[in-house]
């Protein structure tokens, strides 16, 4: 059975989507079958893998409203062992749609729609990576209900810990009310500028706050990592010998080691 890992942080600009794409691709390079779920209405994971709207008919929106099957929404990418369930801007209005559907159908569980389908996908994939939107709304609730664990990307900046307490509280509430099996997979430090003392101080602060949950791998702030999505490629395919590619490959190895598979 595969493992579902949700990348969550209600703060934007922390490298969540970039890390979702590159962790998923790196796990694929390491011979794991991976499904990337784009749960952000902006659809940046989808476009970051070079997939345009003409390449698919159904998305995670149709899936969560029972308008398409799992098989009808999964797209095999051109990258090794990597598939994706794409997103469209339609996802921005799904809160209303889910509420309306639950009113009309008492058996419809609007908070567990994603889980219903990803439980099926676990039979086909080693890892399922969910890229969550920068909010704690119904989409993130669906992700936390479906996930086995949460990976928290934290930017190495002055306000890094701002909002983290709220996020941890949300995870604890999800454990209590939605998903007792949910755990923190790990904390990923991103966008480190090692030339600044501030960045290194933030690393120490995060490590003291989360202790052994913090990954040894730190993702540096590098132009190539930012460039890769505009070419529709993960960094490991855009610049395989680059420090950014090495960092995400190292992260993928840590994830595999922690999970023993």
Topology:
Blueprint: E1 3-7, H1 16-29, E2 34-38, H2 44-48, H3 60-64, H4 70-73, E3 75-76, E4 82-85, H5 94-104, H6 113-121, E5 127-131, H7 138-146, E6 149-155, H8 164-177, E7 183-192, H9 197-210, E8 214-220, H10 223-227, H11 235-238, H12 243-259
Parallel strand pairs: 1-5, 1-6, 2-4, 2-5, 6-7, 7-8
Antiparallel strand pairs: 3-4
Helix pairs in contact: 1-12, 6-7
Write up what this structure looks like.
By secondary structure, the chain is of the alpha/beta class. Helix content is 43%, strand content 17%. The protein has twelve helices and eight strands. The chain has helices at 16-29, 44-48, 60-64, 70-73, 94-104, 113-121, 138-146, 164-177, 197-210, 223-227, 235-238, 243-259, and strands at residues 3-7, 34-38, 75-76, 82-85, 127-131, 149-155, 183-192, 214-220. It has an eight-stranded mixed sheet, sandwiched between helices. Helix 8 links the parallel strand 6 and strand 7. The chain starts with a strand and ends with a helix. The model has no long low-confidence stretch (mean pLDDT 92).
